[in-house]
Amino acid sequence: TLKIVDYIKSLNIPTICFPKGIGKNYINFNSLVKPDCISIDYEIDPKWIKEKLKGTPIQGGLDPKILLTDKDNIKRNAEHYIKIFSDYPYVFNLGHGVLPETKPEIIQYLIQIIRNKFRYVVNHLRINRVIKAYSYSSNTSVSFYPNNIFLLSFT
Fold first, then answer.
1. Contact predicate 136/142, CB 8 Å
2. 32-44 pLDDT, tens per residue?
3. Alpha-carbon Rg of the chain, whole angstroms?
4. pTM listed for this prediction
């Protein structure tokens, strides 16, 4: 992994690593590999990882099984992650892939929760400039704004 990440970084491409299932070894992994962002699985306590990584941007964490529950529980869990990382560089995402039995309308519901929350944050902070933007493919990009806000865009 280290050789791959080093090579990608040598091309001036940001890296996000997802070392799923390594538990407390996220700290050692992050220290050794030094990704630009680290994606966490749903078994990691978001408060713990936020404290331990000390500034490395974090992505993910929400258990995809949450999307199989009711809308109130989905909203509560999504807002839990948003609240924990409100003062920290964070990209909202699941802690692993979407389960096959997840209804598309539930994914849309989650997206709307995130969009509404970020719309409020962006308007509240009156952000008017993008510090850095990266395009990962023709239809996906992530923008870095002041105050540690990330906006992952799909077109």
1. yes
2. 999 888 999 999 9
3. 16
4. 0.73
